[in-house]
Amino acid sequence: MRRFSLWLRGRPIVADSILAAVLMLIDIAGVGDERHKAVYLVFSVILPLPLVLRRVYPRAMAAVLLVLSVVNTIVGHLVDAGATDHISLIGVGVMLYTLVAYVGRREGLIYLAFLAFDLVLSVALLDEPTGVDLAMVGLIYALCWTLAEFNGARHAYDAEVAARLAVADYDRERRAHDAVAAERTRIARELHDVVAHAVSVIIVQADGAKYALRADPDTAERALATIAGTGRDALRELRRTVALLRTEHAPELLPQHGSAGIAKVAQMMREAGVAVDLELRGELDDIAPELSLGVHRIVQESLTNTLRHAGIEPKAVVRVHRHETDILVEVTDSGGVPAHVNPVTGIAGGGMGLVGMRERVAVLGGTLHAGRLDDGRWQVRAELPLHVEAD
């Protein structure tokens, strides 16, 4: 049963079709007590139909069901059939719940006002529902609204948790990518050291062997042996290093740079609860890869710090402007909880985020300022020169 419930959760149309079918069958089962059976059967069939798409098109289906309910009341008055379909009350209650839970309270209040008009019309044309029925209707609507508020809050909480988990996953992938990049940098340094050392030794020994070849064959032989040994050792180290370089990491760990990557980070932070206002100017997709990565990381780390330290309802304004000679990256957030000063680094903040940003900006030849503004907001501002221009 639980497995079937989970299966239905991912297929809203199927679940709502079952609900509409159940209401339709219950309504049809009561046809024997009605004077105008044909009218009753028609509305028994069409009234539950909007419920099938209530979660796909909530506003449109709510309007359709309301119109059908009003038409049902008018037709009941014209044919003198009375209230020909009482099961529609459940349908409009479900629609009220849908609007409040999946769209918003404003739409729910508007819909509730139209439902009140429908009730007034029923009383005026059909003398129904009675006072007791009206009290029952009000109770049903109140229960639907309350349930919608509860489920809406739960859905919002689940969405925020999912967004924060996505941020955590993205951050973990970013750290994994940085770890791989650092390891490859270390391997490149080792490769340089191995090659430089081996080539230097070989050149010196080869020059010595050339001069000693005729005058001192033993010395030339020792030099050649040294060259051979050095070459073998260098070849062994090169093979080990190349084997490490051939170990590829997963493609999804590669960050998405450029304007699309920045927009992705901003959207992810919005889903996690940070109100991000993004402003991009100039062409950001044709700059050097290392500069693009630097811009991406500064925005990402700054927004992550905003999420962690900017308190309740954090807000941030991200500006990335490309000028003729440099790129300006400016992230200003709402401030929130004051950051403490790290006693080791002397930089505000609890972790190594700002330290990493400063190191990255220094490598790129830029400048970085991070601190609190006079109005209490926190700002990270970096200026990165355009060292390499794309063709």
UniProtKB/TrEMBL annotation:
Catalytic activity entry: ATP + protein L-histidine = ADP + protein N-phospho-L-histidine
Residue spans crossing the bilayer: 12-32, 38-53, 60-79, 85-102, 109-126
Pfam entry (one): DUF7134
Keyword ATP-binding attached: yes
All residue ranges annotated as the DUF7134 domain in the record: 6-148
Domain of life assignment: Bacteria
Domain Histidine kinase/HSP90-like ATPase: 293-386
CDD domains according to UniProt: HATPase_UhpB-NarQ-NarX-like (cd16917)
UniProt entry keywords in alphabetical sequence: ATP-binding, Kinase, Membrane, Nucleotide-binding, Phosphoprotein, Transferase, Transmembrane, Transmembrane helix, Two-component regulatory system
Gene Ontology molecular function: any one: kinase activity
Domain Signal transduction histidine kinase subgroup 3 dimerisation and phosphoacceptor: residue ranges: 183-248
PANTHER family: NITRATE/NITRITE SENSOR PROTEIN NARX-RELATED, NITRATE_NITRITE SENSOR PROTEIN NARQ
Protein name: histidine kinase
Organism: Nocardia lasii
